[in-house]
Amino acid sequence: MEWYAWIVLLWVVYILVQLGRLAFGDADLSLLWKETFGKKPAVLKGQVVWITGASSGIGEHLAYELAQAGCRLVLSARREEELERVKKQCLLRGSIKEEDVLVLPLDMLRCDTHKPAVEHVVNYFKQIDVLVNNAGRTQRGETIRTDVDVQREILELNVLGPISLTTAVLPRMVEQQRGHLVVVSSLASKMGLPMSATYCASKAAVNRWFESVCVEHTTDHIDVTLILPGPVFSDLFEAAFTEQAGRIHGQPAKPTDKRMATARCAELAAVAIANRVSEAWVAQQPYLAMFYLAQYMPDISRW
């Protein structure tokens, strides 16, 4: 067989392997490659990582992953008692000390508290290496029936909250001449979905904002990682906004749903953070394939 035939054969085998990984994988090909051959979360050991929305769901399990990696943690959410529970688990699971985990209650809607919170973290740890903007809520409601107050609150929580906190953290990272901004966004930012119009818009908006920040601060050695999960088993679905202000969806996801385990999502998120990937897609099939179609063949995806 001629040498060029071998090259063609190897190329075909490579394509088939990648298609197989795509068909059966639970993340984009780049992230799966990093998981196998890239840096492990242990490279983050000793770094100060601030996680919002750390009292449950992806934020909680990401805290466990990073505790095992030896990170120093700032855990923020509104429910202090749940944060204390997560802290105890972090100390049990990770090789870190009591003083390595700071519980800092924080309401993302109260933007006036964000700068004082940053000052508190800097006074405690003297640095902020990674900020994980994870806090947020999803939505279940027809657009035509959804109160404008609900839509405003979604945008304030999912967009203005992370913008406010990040704007407060940025000067410190610029002063340090290093930093890593992580956003737990959503694959819903890649296409419009029914019953979630404002949620989809909020995630698309936050993606573009952080991408712009990354470009502005390239010379300051500040990186941005967008983590885009698909459906995940967490209390996010139950706590979703509805069409009326003050009402939540109140129904948990069904055990039979094709959703990713929260722990697996957090595991992949930790890999993305360790490798400073620009964008990571994390989802079970068939959702992953569906969003690939939406990204690269939008007309077909709308059939």
Automatic annotation (TrEMBL):
The keyword Membrane applies. Gene3D superfamilies: NAD(P)-binding Rossmann-like Domain. GO terms for biological process: lipid metabolic process. InterPro entries: KR_dom (IPR057326), NAD(P)-bd_dom_sf (IPR036291), Sc_DH/Rdtase_CS (IPR020904), SDR_fam (IPR002347), SDR_family_member_7 (IPR053011). The chain crosses the membrane at residues 6-24. Keywords: Membrane, Oxidoreductase, Transmembrane, Transmembrane helix. Residues 47-232 form the Ketoreductase domain. SUPFAM superfamilies: NAD(P)-binding Rossmann-fold domains. PROSITE patterns: ADH_SHORT. One of its GO terms (molecular function) is oxidoreductase activity. Belongs to the short-chain dehydrogenases/reductases (SDR) family. PANTHER family: DEHYDROGENASE/REDUCTASE SDR FAMILY MEMBER 7-RELATED, DEHYDROGENASE_REDUCTASE SDR FAMILY MEMBER 7. This is Ketoreductase domain-containing protein. It comes from Ridgeia piscesae (Tubeworm).
